[in-house]
Amino acid sequence: MEADLPLIGLVNERRRLLEALRTRNSLLMLGPRGSGKTKLIQSAIRELPSRRDIIYVEYSSTLHELLISLARALLESGHHGIRKRAAAGPDVEVWLSRQTSVHLKGVLWNSLEADPRTIIFDGVDGSSHPIYRFLQRIYFAQGMGIFAASRDVLALGVLGRLFWDPRRTLQVQPLSQPDSNQLFHLAADRVGLKTRDLNLDEFREKVLDAAAGNPGQIVEMCRLAANPQYVRGRYIKFAPLRIDALMKFMG
């Protein structure tokens, strides 16, 4: 459901992210889980005229898995440098399964230094010195833009050494009350809450107060409210729903 809903609010954050993407100025995005970082990234990418230059990677704290994900994303985008050096053939997954981390690092370094791209690592949570050393070389390669999205500075781990400059940090702010209210109504309508005889005014007040501007939590609480187990008569049982919703955002 979240993928179908439009980006609400975050106007300043979107403007800054777009400018950084267009100029390939590396940027760190910080915000708690559910704050809208991924939605913000996806919205910005859709507006760019050349999306193939943007390589989106879901982060893994395991070096080999991260290398595989990055290589796969580059191959799927048609990156000329890695296709020339990898000679992966028609079955990319077979080629990837045969690669060692040492070989992949060399292929990726040489490919990206010859043909730079903008790379977005979404969901950064923990990092090791090997990951830092790999990304350090890419980060400082001419023409490269490295973007990272994480819940806070502590979650970056060693990668905090790369993103040390506060001028290159974008803090995703909570939604305003009007934006939160708009998102609630869109989400409630999408899951069919408005077609049922429920006391939505009371539920809305509790949701907006508990979410404190976190869009992911607003959407998740609306999604759960569509489940009959949280409904008694015209009322939504908020306490158990809130506990279950929070489980998604813990950590």
Can you walk me through this structure?
The protein is an alpha/beta fold and 251 residues long. The chain has two domains: 170 residues, P-loop containing nucleotide triphosphate hydrolases (Rossmann fold, 3-Layer(aba) Sandwich), CATH 3.40.50; 71 residues. Helix 7 links the parallel strand 3 and strand 4. Helix 1 crosses helix 2, helix 4 packs antiparallel against helix 6 and helix 9 runs parallel beside helix 11.
Throw out a few tags for this protein.
alpha/beta, 12% strand, 251 residues, elongated
Beta fraction of the residues?
Answer: 5-15%
The CATH fourth-level homologous superfamily of the largest domain: P-loop containing nucleotide triphosphate hydrolases
Number of domains: 2
The CATH architecture assignment of the largest domain turns out to be 3-Layer(aba) Sandwich
Low-pLDDT regions: none
Task: Report the biggest beta sheet as strand number plus sense, adding barrel if it closes.
Answer: 5 strands, parallel
Instruction: Give Rg in angstroms.
Output: 21 Å
Strand order of the largest sheet: 2-3-4-1-5
Helix content: 40-55%
From N to C, what is the helix and strand string? Answer: HEHEHHHHEHEHEHHHEEH
- Terminal CA distance: 22 Å
User: Could you report the average pLDDT, rounded to the nearest whole number?
Assistant: 93
| Approximate shape | elongated
With helices defined by DSSP (H or I, 4 residues minimum), what is the helix count? 12
What is the CATH top level name of the largest domain? Alpha Beta
* Number of β-strand runs: 7
- CATH topology of the largest domain: the name is Rossmann fold
Structural class: alpha/beta
